[in-house]
Amino acid sequence: MLTLLPTLAAASFLVFLFIHLIPGDPAAILLGDAATPEAAAALSKELGLDEPLLKQYALWLGNVAQGDLGTSIFFQQPVLSVIGDGAETSILLAVMTMFWIIAFGVPVGVISAIRRGSWIDQISSGGAMLFASVPTFWLGLYLIHIFSVGLGWFPSSGFPSISDDGGLANLRYLLLPSLTLAAPNAALIIRLVRASMLDVSREDYVRTARAKGLHPARVAVRHVFRNALIAVAAAFGFTFAALVSEAVVTETVFSLPGIGRLVVQSILRRDYPVIQGVVLVVVVLYMAVNLLVDLAYASLDPRVSLN
């Protein structure tokens, strides 16, 4: 927690610096091809883009400290409002994806570890490697082709807010995208759970539990699986954070109005305030997840103390 503010300050400075080094003038992009140098210069002055970089950064950082991430150059709306519009889609997509990852990845990984070397282990390990190597855009397009175009079971693109007509039924728009994202991530979790359980199963306390005559299922669940979760917990946390901020390809394939797609569009438009705001929010998200994972260690491992 003591590293929170210095890390945020360093991240914000690097992001601000790198973004302003991107070639292109936001004023010229806003005015279009017919923009004259005089009109672009006037708009840049109006937006404050003609000030020295350090002065721009100091002004922006002062506003951030007051909870103001600025105003979008393209949308002409507060950055927080623009991010909020895409946050619903990204968060719901990440939650649904995590559900599939946990529902499939953890049980298959546990079974694969318990039945190590069996045909079940071989099939699950091979399937995990296959799905981990399949590009998400390819998988997404094939899911659209089969379940949207062919069978007509699910929508192929877009996502109306759950506050619109339809309510929770609108979540069906996120089913195919969440499965697309879950496939490679669940494959990695399968491999991680399997490897972690096999490592824990070699510990002395596990041999002792088996020597006492405890039922194999009890040994696997209480002694092996619980301790293996310590390594897997961090993967869960950072996978969720990555799903919120990095699902650019999937959001593009399914035309979802999420955070990832917003960042790509903002970079193309040179919308500096939106890019800076999104990256700052993502940094905060990663740091919050890291803190929650550290706190989770204490509940998963009695040897870890928070005092």
Distance between the termini: 14 Å
Gyration radius, rounded: 24 Å
CATH topology: MetI-like fold
SSE order, one letter for each helix or strand: HHHHHHHHHHHHH
How would a crystallographer describe the biggest sheet?
none
Helix and strand content put the structural class at mainly alpha
Helix content: over 70%
Name of the CATH superfamily = MetI-like
Count of individual helical segments = 13
- Whole-number average pLDDT? 76
What would you say the CATH architecture is? Orthogonal Bundle
Q: Which stretches are poorly predicted, pLDDT < 50 over at least 5 residues?
A: none
Note the quaternary state here: single chain
Would you kindly provide a brief summary of this structure?
The chain is mostly helical and 307 residues long. Helix content is 73%, strand content 0%. It contains 13 helices and no strands.
Give a written overview of the molecule.
The protein is built from 13 helices and no strands. It has 307 residues and is mainly alpha-helical. The chain has a single domain (79-300), classed as Orthogonal Bundle (MetI-like fold). The mean pLDDT is 76.
Pick out its properties.
307 residues; mainly alpha; MetI-like fold; 13 helices
How would you summarize the topology of this molecule?
Layout (H helix, E strand, L loop, with lengths): L3 H17 L5 H6 L5 H11 L5 H13 L13 H36 L4 H15 L2 H15 L24 H26 L3 H8 L4 H31 L1 H6 L5 H11 L2 H29 L7
Helix pairs in contact: 1-13, 5-6, 5-8, 5-10, 5-13, 6-8, 7-8, 8-10, 9-10, 10-13, 12-13
